[in-house]
Amino acid sequence: MKATIERATLLRGLSHVQSVVERRNTIPILSNVLIEAQGGEGLKLMATDLDLQVVETVAAAIDQPGATTVSAHTLFDIVRKLPEGSQVQLTAAEGKMQVVAGRARFNLATLPRDDFPVIAEGELPTRFELPAETLKQIIDKTRFAISTEETRYYLNGIFLHVSDETQPVLKAAATDGHRLARVTVARPEGASGMPDVIIPRKCVAELRKLLDEVDGSVAISLSTSKIRFGLGNATLTSKLIDGTFPDYSRVIPTANDKLLRIDPKSFMEGVDRVATIASEKTRAVKMALDRDKIILSVTSPENGTAAEEVPGDYSAAGFEIGFNARYLLDILGQIEGDQVEVHLADAAAPTLIRENDKAAALYVLMPMRV
């Protein structure tokens, strides 16, 4: 194999594929990136961890077709350190790959291409397209609520499903048992009848990185066990989480009768300030609601106390409720408008947070004792 490629092009392609590769691998081939020089098609780069696979095609001058695999992180680090604007020549033969750029020359050990595992996709019967911006919105507004608890593996991802309400919609939800985030978008053509799927956390993270370089739409194909995203020159394929997502609609409150309308920015800044002294373990902040007056306070045995009054529109009966400050800040950070609605019931019931009843996203936050 012999190919010549511009450093910036190779670096961008490698940065996309190498992040899938785990740093520690018991199977040596999984530390490698597959590099395939295809006559007339450029250079195909591929990496996998057996659950997730990224393939990207980059423009290159191919002198001799062929394929090999080489350490992904090593090659990425080499290319990163090469001078800007340089042309990189890759030559592979007899178990070695030579990387030449200007006066720099590297000889790297390779492993045979035939040993490289490829995720067999099988049939992916459901196919539809989503604008890249919509997909970004779905991920950004839900992924902070994905659980990191490995024992509840079915919560370690974003739950994607369709439903028929007043109009056909596609919903994405994530929860860790303390908070829930849900986004609803119009159902794209081709998505009706799709199976309910849970997209794993690592796939969500890699997809979000790739979306920054995509304009237009993303082609999505899926079955009950796998999902594939077509992102221009890159294709991301992932296994899905094999589990049943809980019926989250049961925890979305519908009868919370106390309504607080507040500016999310000043609310967020107030919570952030008083939470400075909150203990790391509980991160609890207390919210005392009175007519058009909200007092945020934190009492910490180690650090002392803090309180701040924030303006808000509230006319129901006064009461006190406590929240985990980190969870509250995560939710408020996703609110884009200049007003947020907080629907409350009492100090023990889940609280509903959303911009308004037309907003695509809604959030549910469980209170805590303070």
From TrEMBL:
Keywords: Cytoplasm, DNA replication, DNA-binding, DNA-directed DNA polymerase, Nucleotidyltransferase, Transferase. Residues 129-247 form the DNA polymerase III beta sliding clamp central domain. One of its GO terms (molecular function) is DNA-directed DNA polymerase activity. It comes from the Bacteria. Residues 250-369 form the DNA polymerase III beta sliding clamp C-terminal domain. It holds the Pfam family DNA_pol3_beta_2. It is found in: Cytoplasm. Residues 1-119 form the DNA polymerase III beta sliding clamp N-terminal domain. Forms a ring-shaped head-to-tail homodimer around DNA. Belongs to the beta sliding clamp family. Confers DNA tethering and processivity to DNA polymerases and other proteins. Acts as a clamp, forming a ring around DNA (a reaction catalyzed by the clamp-loading complex) which diffuses in an ATP-independent manner freely and bidirectionally along dsDNA. Initially characterized for its ability to contact the catalytic subunit of DNA polymerase III (Pol III), a complex, multichain enzyme responsible for most of the replicative synthesis in bacteria; Pol III exhibits 3'-5' exonuclease proofreading activity. This is Beta sliding clamp. It comes from Sphingomonas quercus.
